[in-house]
Design the sequence.
């Protein structure tokens, strides 16, 4: 709990640093992003506090409705009057001044419902795996239609992890790997820009003004940071050089201002959160919640990993926010819901042990 | 229970895998931040800043005594932005007070509306700008203009050269020494966002380094004497070109190099590029000419130095020599008769110099041409120099050698001739002509000097003999008009026919005179030539010598040389020679102590200069034409 709150508060500080210039230029208000994120953080804390006090068994009943709501919302994205298109993708739902990304919710809905299913139908049998895979593929298709490559990748990862923890056998994995690998050329053929991204990742300097721009700017930020960084609030890359400095590339600003030491500590904190989540999962005697805690933690783990991997140029650039830190209300609220759930499971564990 | 174990094992697997991937990313992070950090930061710095160049002040060109010949000035242009102006009449009143421009005119400009900027005044000095700026009136802006200016305007023009609109050297010395003059531009680095908008008031400067000053060997006064001589000669003879080189006989430094026609450096005529190009070309270093009689100085020096001739030798001139079965005429077709060496030099007798060249022989002559530097460039620091044009050694027949003896069949540059003749009269040392004396940086520290080297070509005693012989030319020969009363000046005239397409270009001459002052202290060598003079007069003795005389007179007065001999010259009235034959005219002129030059193939005088009745100085040159 303390680590997550720390990450949220740290995120707010970094968000101010990363966004104040852009915000004052675009919205004439240096605190624009911080105000909105502050409200989201307040909501997130409330959500987290409430869910942590609930009996985690609510997911027993809620998982299927949540799954249904997710699917509906993800479909609504494509309704012209409701979906908000941005940077060529329909990922947001706009309701008045608020906007949200249904895919944020979808990840958790998927792991909970998968946990619920696996709890009752162990996956050692091939037949039992089909609903998990089916729902996962459905989400992937919807996400690809948006298109949202990053969440699709996370979803694929989640699917595989849930299969793994559910007891699927090695030969099953071999079977699933075939379509995943086969999907790569198909996806590239569908949208040629993906190949450009892939090439830009291999050599960003080939197109410094085009596809390689984001990665190069991220490199500039990180490279300028060195060991100890240029100091909090002193980033130069945030002056509109670095795109999405407040969200997807906030880790670059951390690296620039706080250096390798700061960035590595932040990564260590993430790994610590993941460790705590898995410890909760492992010490849970209730199989459903063990699986649920595992799934939720894996969401946090995979998304954090993907974000830092993109920012450091380990994988091709794709837009994914850093949990708890990046700007984005729906992401923050959903993750706090997940953490709240983890805390409630932890509470149950302690009670069981105490008895 | 088995399931529980499998669950924990697989959970642990996931944790380890995720931690492993995080470690990989951390490794990449380390690589980007630490290993590649410095080079990335350097690239990033490039995009964070916009640099405004701070133009270095271009160095000046100075004469040897420190007079500025080319400098850089800063002026200011004042303009207003009408939308910001609150008090147009005050601006107009103040500007009127400062600049003296009529208030009404300025008021009309300051109250203009509907344009973004109005220029109010140009070429303001720093003080004027500061006064106006101090008023604090709103809407006034200044821009800084840097321009090159030349205090003497049409002076040393082609040699000096000029700069382009960015004040970069374009021609002449401005180009030749551009690397020293230009300095190093500095930069003002502004931190900007991606659109180039400045972020803060903090500005870092990389200061500019002012250019070096180049001090020339040119003496402003001597250059002025040479300038006026060539300008007047050009006008008087409506010639194609006139040029004058004054060289320091002891150092090789060029004291003056004037060329006409020329142009005003402060108003370069860029509209007529062909003409401008021609005026920028320094003929003194880039053109080769058959020099004619001035070249005889070299022939006599070589013959004397080789012991092939002595002052006791006599030469007989029947008016022509036959070499290899070819008749080569002396300029005086009637012949000079029997002459001493000194008389042959005074008469500039071609036959005598043919004899000398043939006596020395082609191998020795060519060896000396190499030693005098005629076969290579002199090394002067002026762009576009060429070397002399000589017949191939193996192709030189005796008839060619005979012609070379009196300055034909060999073409050299004026600077090459000056250099060689200087070696003949300064004691025998060949010097490297140069224009740059030294280069000083802005603190006054000398960063470059001309390395003067000299090589001996002829002996000191030969040189003394040559001086003596040349003294006779000015004292009692064809060079009289170059003389300055009371001073011992030596020299030699030259009148060369010009060639075109392998044949004689009729009526086109290069009239020249080369001389030195003075006998005891040979300090300056002056060479003046008039290319294609128009009219009856074309002899070097009459066209070039008088102007060299004026240059010598001015120089001697300028350096404060004491006259060594006092011989007040009397004047007389020129008699009329019309209708007389050559012998009669010669008798009369000898009686009057005049030097006679005759042209034409006829028997009777039909034209004379100076004309009859003119008041002339004793010892002047008279030209008669026989028809």
Sequence:
């Amino acid at each position: 709990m303390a680590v997550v709150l720390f990450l949220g508060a740290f995120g707010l500080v970094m968000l101010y640093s990363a966004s104040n210039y852009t915000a004052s230029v675009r919205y004439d208000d240096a605190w624009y992003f911080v105000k909105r994120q502050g409200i989201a953080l307040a909501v997130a804390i409330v959500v987290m506090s409430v869910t942590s006090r609930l009996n985690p068994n609510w997911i027993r009943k809620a998982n299927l409705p949540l799954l249904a709501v997710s699917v509906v919302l993800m479909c609504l994205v494509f309704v012209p009057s409701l979906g908000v298109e941005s940077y060529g993708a329909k990922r947001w739902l706009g309701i008045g001044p608020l906007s949200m990304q249904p895919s944020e919710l979808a990840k958790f809905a998927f792991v909970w419902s998968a946990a619920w299913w696996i709890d009752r139908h162990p996956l050692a049998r091939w037949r039992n795996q089909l609903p998990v895979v089916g729902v996962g593929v459905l989400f992937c298709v919807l996400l690809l239609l948006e298109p949202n490559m990053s969440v699709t990748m996370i979803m694929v990862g989640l699917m595989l992890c849930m299969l793994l923890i559910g007891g699927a056998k090695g030969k099953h994995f071999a079977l699933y790997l075939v379509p995943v690998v086969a999907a790569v050329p198909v996806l590239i053929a569908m949208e040629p820009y993906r190949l450009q991204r892939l090439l830009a990742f291999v050599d960003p300097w080939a197109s410094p003004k085009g596809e390689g721009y984001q990665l190069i700017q991220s490199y500039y930020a990180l490279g300028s940071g060195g060991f100890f960084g240029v100091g909090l609030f002193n980033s130069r890359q945030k002056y509109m050089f670095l795109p999405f400095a407040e969200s997807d590339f906030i880790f670059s600003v951390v690296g620039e201002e706080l250096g390798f030491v700061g960035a590595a500590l932040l990564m260590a904190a993430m790994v610590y959160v993941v460790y705590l989540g898995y410890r909760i999962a492992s010490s849970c005697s209730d199989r459903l919640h063990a699986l649920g805690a595992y799934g939720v933690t894996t969401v946090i783990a995979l998304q954090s990993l993907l974000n830092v991997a993109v920012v450091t140029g380990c994988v091709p650039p794709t837009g994914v926010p850093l949990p708890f830190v990046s700007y984005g209300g729906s992401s923050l609220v959903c993750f706090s819901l997940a953490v709240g759930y983890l805390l409630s499971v932890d509470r149950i564990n302690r009670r069981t042990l105490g008895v | 229970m088995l399931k529980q174990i499998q669950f924990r094992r697989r959970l642990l697997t996931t944790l380890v895998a995720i931690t492993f991937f995080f470690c990989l990313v951390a490794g990449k992070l380390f690589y980007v931040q630490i290993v590649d950090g410095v080079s990335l930061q350097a690239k990033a710095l490039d995009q964070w800043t916009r640099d405004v160049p701070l133009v270095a002040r271009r160095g000046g060109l100075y004469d040897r005594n420190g007079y500025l010949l080319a400098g850089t000035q800063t002026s200011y242009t004042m303009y207003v932005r009408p939308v910001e102006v609150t008090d147009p009449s005050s601006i107009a009143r103040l500007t009127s007070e400062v600049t003296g421009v009529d208030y009404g005119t300025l008021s009309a400009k300051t109250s203009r509306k509907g344009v973004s900027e109005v220029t109010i005044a140009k070429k303001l000095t720093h003080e004027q700008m500061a006064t106006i700026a101090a008023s604090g009136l709103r809407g006034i802006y200044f821009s800084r203009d840097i321009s090159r200016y030349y205090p003497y305007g049409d002076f040393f023009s082609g040699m000096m050269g000029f700069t382009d609109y960015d004040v970069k050297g374009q021609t002449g010395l401005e180009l030749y020494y551009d690397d020293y003059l230009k300095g190093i531009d500095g930069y003002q680095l502004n931190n900007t966002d991606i659109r180039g908008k400045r972020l803060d008031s903090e500005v870092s400067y990389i200061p500019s380094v002012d250019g070096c000053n180049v001090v020339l060997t040119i003496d402003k006064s001597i250059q002025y004497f040479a300038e006026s001589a060539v300008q007047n000669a050009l006008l008087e003879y409506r010639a194609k070109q006139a040029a004058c080189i004054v060289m320091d006989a002891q150092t090789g430094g060029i004291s003056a190099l004037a060329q006409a026609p020329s142009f005003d450096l402060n108003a370069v005529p860029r509209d007529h590029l062909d003409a401008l190009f021609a005026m920028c070309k320094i003929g003194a270093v880039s053109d080769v000419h058959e020099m004619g009689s001035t070249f005889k100085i070299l022939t006599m020096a070589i013959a004397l130095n080789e012991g092939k001739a002595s002052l006791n030798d006599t030469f007989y001139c029947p008016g022509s020599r036959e070499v290899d079965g070819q008749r080569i005429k002396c300029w005086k077709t009637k012949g000079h008769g029997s002459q001493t060496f000194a008389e042959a030099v005074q008469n500039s007798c071609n036959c005598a110099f043919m004899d000398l060249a043939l006596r020395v022989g082609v191998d020795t002559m060519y060896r000396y041409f190499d030693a005098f530097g005629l076969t290579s460039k002199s090394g002067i620091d002026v762009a576009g120099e060429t070397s002399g044009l000589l017949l191939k050694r193996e192709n030189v027949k005796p008839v060619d050698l005979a012609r070379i003896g009196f300055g034909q069949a060999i073409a050299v540059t004026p600077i090459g001739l000056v250099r060689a003749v200087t070696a003949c009269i300064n004691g025998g040392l060949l010097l490297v002509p140069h224009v740059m004396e030294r280069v000083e940086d802005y603190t006054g520290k000398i960063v470059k000097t001309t390395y003067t080297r000299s090589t001996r070509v002829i002996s000191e005693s030969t040189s003394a003999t040559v001086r003596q012989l040349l003294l006779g030319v000015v004292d009692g020969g064809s060079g009289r008009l170059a003389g300055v009363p009371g001073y011992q000046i030596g020299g030699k005239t030259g009148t060369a026919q010009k060639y075109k397409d392998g044949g004689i270009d009729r009526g086109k001459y290069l009239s020249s005179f080369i001389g030195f002052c003075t006998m005891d202290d040979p300090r300056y060598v002056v060479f003046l030539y008039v290319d294609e003079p128009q009219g009856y007069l074309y002899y070097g003795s009459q066209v070039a010598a008088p102007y060299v005389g004026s240059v010598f007179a001015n120089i001697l007065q300028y350096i404060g040389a004491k006259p060594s001999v006092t011989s007040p010259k009397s004047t007389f009235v020129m008699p009329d020679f019309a209708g007389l034959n050559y012998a009669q005219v010669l008798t009369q002129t000898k009686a009057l102590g005049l030097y006679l030059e005759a042209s034409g193939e006829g028997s009777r005088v039909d034209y004379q200069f100076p004309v009859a009745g003119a008041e002339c100085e004793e010892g002047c040159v008279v030209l008669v034409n026989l028809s």
